[in-house]
Design a protein that fits this description.
- By secondary structure, the chain is of the alpha+beta class.
- The protein has helices at 39-52, 57-60, 73-86, 109-120, 138-141, and strands spanning 2-13, 18-20, 23-25, 30-31, 89-99, 127-132, 145-156.
- Helices cover 30% and strands 31% of the residues.
- A five-stranded mixed β-sheet has the order 4-1-7-5-6.
- The two termini are 15 Å apart.
- Helix 1 (39-52) packs parallel to helix 3 (73-86) and helix 3 (73-86) packs parallel to helix 4 (109-120).
- Its EC number is 4.6.1.12.
- 4-CDP-2-C-methyl-D-erythritol 2-phosphate binds at residues 8-10, 34-35, 56-58, 61-65, 132-135.
- This is 2-C-methyl-D-erythritol 2,4-cyclodiphosphate synthase.
- Residues 1-154 form the 2-C-methyl-D-erythritol 2,4-cyclodiphosphate synthase domain.
Length: 159
């Protein structure tokens, strides 16, 4: 078994869609970034890559490469899972936490779990998604952005 941790944070800005865990959430602000800026999926990608010893999302999908402008982060996650499988690993489970003041994540949690589980090749119950506020503290607490943490467990594929 191998364990990896991932983290991502993006600023909330007007004029962008808000995508988390591959799910578009109706909100007046969206996350700023080169791709779809899906901070939750980015944290999961980094956790999986870290567990496999394969670097990080910026190495594989650099924000300086126009090919990834507006990219669907779940499609990037699927590419990472394929890469990990080529090396003899499979995802056991993922657990993630979304930190934001608004919008509320609970109404979208199950859709996120299903979308991420499908990309990871696991059952929805193997994906944990929790949400919390920052109790009004710091940039997250001021509603300026959304941050996400994720932990991934990889297990060796059976021969």
């Amino acid at each position: 078994m191998r364990i990896g941790i991932g983290y991502d944070i993006h600023r909330l800005v007007p004029g962008r869609r808000l995508v988390l865990g591959g799910v578009e959430i109706p909100w007046r602000l969206g996350l700023e970034g080169h791709s779809d800026a899906d901070a939750l999926t980015h944290a999961v990608i980094d956790a999986v890559l870290g567990a496999a010893g394969l670097g990080d999302i910026g190495q594989l999908f650099p924000d300086t490469d126009p090919a990834f402008a507006g990219a669907d982060s779940v499609a990037l996650l699927e590419r990472v899972v394929a890469l990990v499988r080529e090396r003899g690993w499979r995802v056991g489970n993922v657990d993630a936490t979304v930190l934001c003041e608004r919008p509320r994540i609970a109404p979208h949690r199950e859709a996120m779990r299903r979308r991420l589980a499908a990309a990871l090749g696991v059952a929805p119950e193997d994906v944990g998604i929790k949400a919390t506020t920052n109790e009004g503290l710091g940039a997250i607490g001021a509603g300026e952005g959304i941050a996400c943490y994720a932990v991934a467990l990889l297990v060796r594929d059976s021969p």
